[in-house]
Description:
The structure is a homodimer of 459-residue chains. With 459 residues, chain A is an alpha/beta fold.
Amino acid sequence: MRYDYVVIGSGVAGYPAAVLLAREGHKVAVIEENLIGGECTNYGCVPSKSLYLLAEAYRSLKKVNAEIHTDWKEISKFVKEVVDESRKGIEYLLNKHDIEIINSKGRLISPKRVKTNEGIIEAKKIILALGTDPKPLPGICFNKDILSNREIFYIDEKPERLLIVGGGVIGVEVSNIFAQLGTEVVLVEAMEHILPFLDKDVALTMRRFLKENGVQIRERVIVKDIKKKDEKLVVKLSNNEILTVDKVLVSIGRIPKTNEIGLENASIEVDQYGFIKVDKLYRTTNTDIYAVGDVVGGPLLAHKAMLESIAAYRNIVGKEPITLNYKLVPQTIFSGLEISWIGYTEKELKSKGINYKKIKLPISYLSSVRIKDSRYSYVKILLSEEKQQILGIHIISPNASEVISSFLPFVIEKIDFKKIAETPYPHLTVSEMVREIAEYIIGEPIHTVVKRMKTIRNQ
Amino acid sequence: MRYDYVVIGSGVAGYPAAVLLAREGHKVAVIEENLIGGECTNYGCVPSKSLYLLAEAYRSLKKVNAEIHTDWKEISKFVKEVVDESRKGIEYLLNKHDIEIINSKGRLISPKRVKTNEGIIEAKKIILALGTDPKPLPGICFNKDILSNREIFYIDEKPERLLIVGGGVIGVEVSNIFAQLGTEVVLVEAMEHILPFLDKDVALTMRRFLKENGVQIRERVIVKDIKKKDEKLVVKLSNNEILTVDKVLVSIGRIPKTNEIGLENASIEVDQYGFIKVDKLYRTTNTDIYAVGDVVGGPLLAHKAMLESIAAYRNIVGKEPITLNYKLVPQTIFSGLEISWIGYTEKELKSKGINYKKIKLPISYLSSVRIKDSRYSYVKILLSEEKQQILGIHIISPNASEVISSFLPFVIEKIDFKKIAETPYPHLTVSEMVREIAEYIIGEPIHTVVKRMKTIRNQ
């Protein structure tokens, strides 16, 4: 079979390019070995945010000591329905654009040929949108009790006790969800603190929030051993603690899915971590083959993958290229008290030797924040020395995931903070903080006192 | 007693100017006849959004057929606690700035003198931030069963059956809250449809949503008579329907609170609706007396009031004036399926003879929207003919109240939609729509098909 373009992987990195290419009349095939929609739709954002909606409802109703009875079967049904609908949406999109869907693993046997269950497929150009797999604990395989993100959102019953290994984004989000829903959660992190890639003040705020919500946290601790005993798992930690739990979630990292893909048959190189090397146009070391999304590394996020997919399409058909600024990709931890950020952390600025001014503005006085209960809410803004440019912004508050988008135009275009301070951001929302922050930066806040902004010198 | 400045009213229109003036060292007094914080804090946004949080939690948990038991006393306690904290926040701010709080009605007895319970107060300049009162039904007084926004959020027990008269913002928000919490709600609107100031398509979407959530709606109907009978209220409607309910909420409009203020003693004029006339600098017809907030009319919103309060302060001390563009004041109806908008409605553009292009983009395919269940979600954008300028944007979706802020920079500054289309707005949020909309406007959407945008000619 011959196609103009073949995309391997139908996730958020794959389907956008496929659709855009097909819309221009090209003959396009998508090879998918698993479920259409990839990790995000089937095992990531979509099921986790479905459960998160329920977890947040539980959290709200705790404020009035509500008694809530749910049947876990109903919860599972809801999650499955949302995921199915999302997946069907992508299938519809592919079908509507006459894209051939080949349900098979795809293996490069030469630079323009892919071996599939349905025979060998030829294409002028190939896009690799392979994604990643969850990384297992050293020497401990995934099984029906030791789970990854592929299984945790689909378990048959609510675990009474859940151990989560790895305090990164997935670990923290799942901890919060299950703790709110009534599971006893223990979260174990090998590094000095959970969310080790974030500045310590931000990570410790999340630690405090999780602890208050019942999550037990162990830091600088690793799992030594897991044994099954009487339907339970007995886990030995490096601090000699022995835990007995129903399930274990392992969320310690991701492995690029490049195994048995035949990269060697097309001279495609990977970096030291196994991510496929690409140039600015998302071409691999074989320039007829593109790679985008999680498999090329960088922030493993759906919106980053989608933009890369669009960028690859543009480069393939010769449209004006898109240059993604990876420091401006917004990131969020959906965890009740959410953390959203764009740009640099303080430790990154330090390591790069960049001077900056720092604002740390508590926003717990905002009624919206007060209602959603977050005495810990604050915003940290790192400004260039001349206070003209936002180098980094971290929002720690309920709804931070929605609010961060309000800051995107500020980092794209130079926006006059004075104008923002004079713009009526809507009451009663968390986004009101935007005007308050602008007011603070220009030095005339109503609700707070301006502290002198110290420059942090790193050079 | 002599002050530099006196502010009558301690709500969102009053306290910002008071704080800013006091911070510059001026001697400031605030006269408040009721509770510090005014309508928004005590009887408006703050208590209603506290209840809304719970209503939304109920709505989320309906998706999994949860059984929820709450004690109304706990709900009331929660609302009161949030309101008390918010009010104390404002009291703290006033005290911290050494502002004298005079708990009294204030009555102008001459242009620079105000009579209070604590004697006559003199000031160089006076700011009137008087607010509004709820408008009663003609010939029917408010009482312990016929309520306004002052009482509805503080009732002792959940009404089994509630009649809401007036399908404006308050009526729709309260309908949604009580319907979600399990009250049988009947909403009566005198005009052709609820939310009569909005375009019909938007209003009818809300009608469909409310009906699905159990609200019974009567349009082109008015209340003829309310009689008490056996602890219930028997209500006769103009369509001859007889309703028996526990409580009635009247939300048919607001009356500027200018009664017995002594405006005549300072030659202050009001308009035909009773709102105080002000010039661009918020000076009344007596130029030593300023008026801001709800009492001057325009959108009766906290964020508009706050900006006017800041503007008045700036004008009084001779700082560069702020010119508010009232068409850019974002407005929101917090009603599950929220409606947020900036700028013009279609009917406003029609009546002004302005041509426009219209985009109506369904956004129910976004996973965030799907999870929060809104098959009815869409965005309506009204663009200038050259597609350069947003004349109006209406978001109908969950979280619209937070998302609308993402559009504010677009209406403040000219922003390149192409740049926005190339910016990774965060997945999985409702704000993702911003990029999708930009993609649609520039003509390259992934998830939808671009329909030819028709120009609607009004001239």
